[in-house]
Design brief:
Elements lengths: L8 H15 L1 H7 L13 H21 L8 H22 L13 H7 L9 H30 L6 H15 L8 H8 L6 H33 L7 H13 L5 H26 L6 H11 L2 E3 L1 H19 L13 E5 L9 E3 L9 E5 L6 E3 L4 H7 L4 H10 L6 H6 L3 H17 L6 H26 L17 H10 L5 H13 L6 H20 L5 H9 L6 H10 L1
Parallel strand pairs: 2-4
Antiparallel strand pairs: 1-5, 3-4
Helix pairs in contact: 1-2, 1-3, 3-4, 4-10, 6-9, 7-9, 8-9, 11-12, 11-18, 12-18, 14-17, 17-21, 18-19, 18-21, 19-20, 21-23
InterPro entries: DUF885
Protein name: DUF885 domain-containing protein
Length: about 575
């Protein structure tokens, strides 16, 4: 472990980042640390214990740092609270041995192994040599993950059956992407044809085949050993485990029953708005989703995968031009963001990857096509305000931009999901407030996206806690939630196709407590803005507030409202 003499909390936090990168080269690659490019983490039980030991040691050093003169300054205090809250939440998850049953359709160790290659540098011969070494590390990484799952079986800590089945399907696709026996890793190497050094070509191809063989081995074990062993286990996690995960993803101990009621209140509010907007598109439509189905066939759309990627790039470029100088003040390097198509075998939801610390790799948005080549725009506009500008990109790139004034931990590693997702949903609402969603198609798509986030609160909490559906619900009043009812409810209140709905419900079973952070995080951002406006009165400046808010680095929902209100 690296050392700093008499450190204050920010120095402790940054030392933790250095030590974490040594254990987790995936994090290092996302930060742009060149030395990480050839390695993969240890996902075995021993590797999980080593990371937990680092967290405990860091908390002990933080105890000392908080007693030193200067530790009570705002910037040190904010960093210390974040570091303590995050590491404590992570340790609670570790001590409950959740890592021994980490199976699902996204965010699991195997997904990290594959996805890190999409952000690994591939410009030079040295880069490709590191890629070859990282490919050869895939068997050990997946083997360590399998060792953890096997220990979970031994201890009767079972992953959920439905996410397990989906994961097996994903591994099958990764091992044979086109039906010819060539896997995702061979495809990855093949796409680098232009920059691939001839001297390394055979070595890379062999390393890619080795990585694919490891995927096949994991797939076969999951299918033949793990899936039968967890058959009959519950898909949902119950109140105790859910509360633990909710703390991890939201940075606060939520009143889950109040949050469930809030989800229903938002559902009823949004349904009323959607009905009005749907009437503008298809008068007399029985439901807003009938109008959205009409748009699927007859609304504005983009033909072609390359074309939709370029269209989304243009949408983000236009947003930057319109917002910079009026509602935000953006550094030149923050203005750069790229639109990308997600690799095959991804989950259905679009996502964003932040820039490296030096911005040598820009922030990127990713669209999973799910085999489609025709893309209605009504559900893309507000989604790209969420994923790109002014959503995830402006926040996470700004954090990276001001990292020197904060700490690396606050800017990159210590992200609280509900903070970031709450900002991104706030960004969608902001664009509506600013008049960017006056087109009826775009606005109904925005409301549909908002409804999806309200439904997430309802079904994620409802099915994991097996809560009762309220008497005033139009859907199965008085019954208790199950995953099957949750999928039916989601499908009836979403414009998304059946495969998207299926993927989403599997996601909620995979990472319980994460999906509720969008609406609950948005509520925190709106409340913080309202209190800042009340505090400053006529002197309140929205642009200045936005930039101050985006320059604080990560905060849990415990702290977010209070800190935003002070700005």
């Amino acid at each position: 472990m690296s050392q700093t003499n008499n450190p204050l909390p920010r120095a402790v936090a940054d030392t933790y980042v250095d030590d974490l990168i040594a254990l987790d080269p995936v994090t290092g690659t996302y930060l742009g640390v060149a030395e990480s490019s050839s390695r993969l983490p240890d996902f075995s039980p021993a590797g999980l214990r080593t990371r937990a030991r680092l967290a405990r040691d860091t908390l002990a050093r933080l105890d000392e740092a908080e007693r030193r003169p200067g530790a009570d300054s705002d910037i040190e205090r904010r960093c210390a609270r974040l570091l303590r809250e995050r590491l404590t939440a992570e340790l609670a998850v570790h001590e409950a041995e959740e890592g021994l049953r980490a199976v699902g359709n996204l965010g699991m160790p195997a997904h990290h192994v594959r996805e890190v290659f999409t952000v690994t540098p591939t410009k030079t011969e040295e880069d490709w040599a590191a890629v070859a070494e990282r490919l050869r590390a895939v068997p050990a990484a997946l083997g360590g993950y399998r060792e953890s799952l096997a220990l979970g079986l031994e201890r009767k800590l079972y992953g959920s059956p439905r996410p397990t089945a989906t994961f097996v399907d994903q591994l099958t696709e990764w091992s044979d992407t086109d039906g010819t026996g060539r896997g995702w890793f061979e495809d990855f190497v093949a796409t680098g044809t232009e920059s691939l050094p001839e001297a390394l070509r055979a070595e890379l191809q062999e390393a890619a085949r080795t990585a694919t063989a490891a995927v096949v081995e994991l797939r076969d074990w999951m299918r033949e050993v793990y899936a039968p062993a967890v058959e009959g286990a519950p898909d949902t996690v119950g109140r105790e485990r859910y509360a633990r995960w909710s703390r991890y993803y939201n940075g606060t101990d939520l009143d889950l029953d109040e949050a469930y009621a809030y989800g229903w209140a938002e559902y009823h509010r949004l349904l009323g708005e959607m009905k009005k907007e749907a009437e503008r598109i298809l008068p007399g439509a029985a439901t807003p989703w009938v109008a959205l189905a009409h748009l699927d066939e007859h609304g504005k759309h983009i033909e072609g995968v390359d074309e939709v990627r370029d269209w989304l790039q243009g949408l983000m470029d236009q947003a930057i031009e319109a917002l910079d100088g009026t509602h935000f003040e953006l550094a030149e390097r923050v203005r750069r963001v790229e639109s990308r198509i997600a690799p095959a075998g991804s989950a259905a939801a679009p996502y964003y990857t932040p820039p490296t610390e030096d911005f040598s790799r820009p922030g990127r948005t990713w669209l999973p096509t799910m085999g489609q080549t025709r893309f209605p725009v009504y559900d893309l506009v507000s989604t790209w305000y969420h994923e790109g500008v002014p959503g995830h990109h402006l926040q996470l790139a700004q954090w990276a931009h001001v990292a020197g004034d904060l700490s690396r931990y606050q800017a990159v590693v210590g992200m609280v999901s509900a903070n970031a997702e709450g900002w991104a949903l706030y960004a969608e609402r902001l664009m509506d407030e600013l008049g960017f969603l006056t087109d009826p198609e775009h606005r109904l798509g925005y409301l549909d996206a908002q409804m999806m986030r309200a439904v997430r609160v309802i079904v994620d909490i409802g099915m994991h806690l097996e809560l009762e559906i309220p008497a005033d619900s139009p859907f199965h009043p008085g019954e208790r939630w199950t995953p099957e009812l949750a999928q039916e409810f989601f499908g009836a209140h979403s414009s998304r196709p059946a495969d998207f709905v299926e993927s989403e419900l599997t996601r909620y079973l995979t990472i319980p407590g994460q999906a509720i952070g969008y609406k609950l995080g948005e509520r925190a951002w709106l409340l913080g803005r309202e209190r800042a406006r009340e505090r400053r009165g006529a002197a309140f400046d929205l642009k200045a507030w936005h930039m101050a808010a985006l320059s604080q680095g990560s905060l849990g929902l415990d702290d977010l409202v209070d800190e935003l209100a002070r700005l």
